[in-house]
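pasting Class II glutamine amidotransferase for the record, 251 residues
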Amino acid sequence: MCRLLGYTAPTATTFTDVVGANFDEFINLSTDHCDGWGIATTQNKKASLYKEPVAANKSAHLKEELATHKSNAALLHLRWATEGMAVNENNTHPFTYEDITFIHNGSISPFNCLDPLIDKKYLELAKGNTDSERYFLYLLTQIEKHGFIEGVKAGLTYIKANCAFSSINMMIINETTFMAACIYNQDKIPQKFKDDTDYYHLKYTKRDGQVVVASSGWNQDGWDEIPNGNVLVVGRVAGKEKLEVLNNLLI
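structre below
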């Protein structure tokens, strides 16, 4: 299981600036979510990526990479590996393809259940052995068929209806759009966090054209919640956001 953080903004910025004083609290979640961290930005139709299989709060490169990845949109991921999944760079998020970046929190089982539905050319891009990477490659397959927003929604709809999962919470960004999905099964919170009933919650905040979305576990006072079964869609060009109920159903 993992922690997710993403933003989109009208001008280039960093996580340190866009999140503010509580950002260190988010980074400290890597005390438990300690199996890797990564950051990705997308700009000028190309993704920029840095990741390493160590805890973010123990990384010698964290501050430098956060400062280097100054962008209008970015994703940050703290990994807590699913049991049985190797801790290495290939399994560390984010995952990228061309200008698309992606991060996931949760598990889909078995890890390769989506393989028959992934276009061969995307499946051949797999470098690791995680369900999260397969999830991304499946979304790429749907994006090619339906376009970015509708493809992501089609992929989410299928997984929600047909796959066994704890959570398919995710964030995905391309050159024009930022999307965050909050879709989880409340009864599958990890044992370690069983008393944190908001473990899978995603919240967002808006200020001066910036939209920031993040997993729980740190100070998010005043943030709005993305309800379970909903997708937040933010147009990076227009700066407009909207919440959409996936299939008009909540899990």
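The chain has a mean pLDDT of 93.
Helices lie at 15-19, 23-27, 62-68, 120-123, 131-146, 148-162.
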